[in-house]
Design goal:
Length: 269
């Protein structure tokens, strides 16, 4: 028995870790079918399981409005952060300039700073500075904050992809009389694109999930994580479980599709 456990120790630990990680997801899925009354924390055997929450995911007041707000902020923050972060990553990897080393360090500051400190600092900036130009706490202050911390993750992800590229590939394109523009769009960009897409997906996930910084700079605006937190005080509605699990399935599907496409490309070469 001991020998059997020793030989399969790594597998057993991996299974236990996966169970630990996916236990909250399983709880979210199961309680999306709960026919709850006042609170969706305790399972109600009367009338459960039920599909009524899946048939009407917007049944809880404000849940879909909060979801739309989070999606809008996530898309805007992802697009802007991906563009700016990609440009900054190219500058840090491909160009020499004064302050390059300091820039590499500063990129990690938003990632290393505790979110509660970052949120409080942004709140001070928005209240004392931006309020003078008529920008109050709300949708756009959340978006600006999300762009700020997403840029760091984009830079790190794209930078790692750029540093892994073989420079001889671009040199070969130039030897075949390809100009700088043709080399970039036909060689460099397709090779870096997986890293850019991965950075964009990571940015959207971070933006959609963020609560601490959002709670500081949101004012009266409600995002989906903030809706869940506020609802927890009186009982999270099952519709929030439906939306949360649906987002998990969507993210998982995107990861699987990416793996399948990547494997298909590698096998075709």
């Amino acid at each position: 028995m001991i020998r059997w456990l020793t030989n399969r120790f790594a597998i057993i630990v991996a299974v236990l870790v996966l169970l630990y990680l996916f236990l909250p997801v399983a709880y979210t899925f199961v309680f999306s079918f709960n026919n709850y009354r006042k609170s969706n924390i305790v399972w109600n055997p009367e009338g459960s399981p039920t599909l009524k929450h899946w048939k009407d995911p917007c049944g809880a007041p404000g849940v879909c409005d909060a979801l739309v707000t989070s999606l809008q902020i996530g898309v805007i923050a992802t697009v802007i952060a991906t563009v700016l972060g990609t440009l900054l990553a190219f500058a840090l990897v491909r160009h020499q300039f004064r302050g390059r080393a300091a820039s590499n360090v500063l990129v990690f500051v938003p990632m290393a700073t505790p979110e509660i400190v970052l949120g409080a600092s942004l709140l001070t900036i928005f209240v004392q500075g931006f309020s003078r130009v008529g920008l109050g706490l709300g949708f756009w202050t959340i978006t600006i904050a999300h762009i700020m911390f997403c840029i760091s993750f984009v830079v790190v992800t794209v930078k790692a992809r750029l540093q892994s590229l073989d420079p001889r590939i671009e040199e070969a394109a130039q030897d075949l009389y390809a100009g700088p523009g043709a080399t970039f769009w036909r060689v460099t960009f397709p090779l870096v694109l997986p890293g850019i897409v991965g950075a964009a997906l990571l940015s959207f996930s971070l933006s959609f999930d963020d609560f601490i910084i959002t709670n500081f700079v949101s004012g009266n605006e409600t995002t989906f994580p903030k809706f869940v937190y506020v609802s927890y005080l009186r009982g999270i509605p099952a519709q929030a479980n439906v939306i949360g699990f649906s987002m998990f399935v969507l993210a998982l599907a995107l990861v699987i599709i990416g793996q399948v496409v990547g494997n298909a490309r590698r096998s075709s070469k």
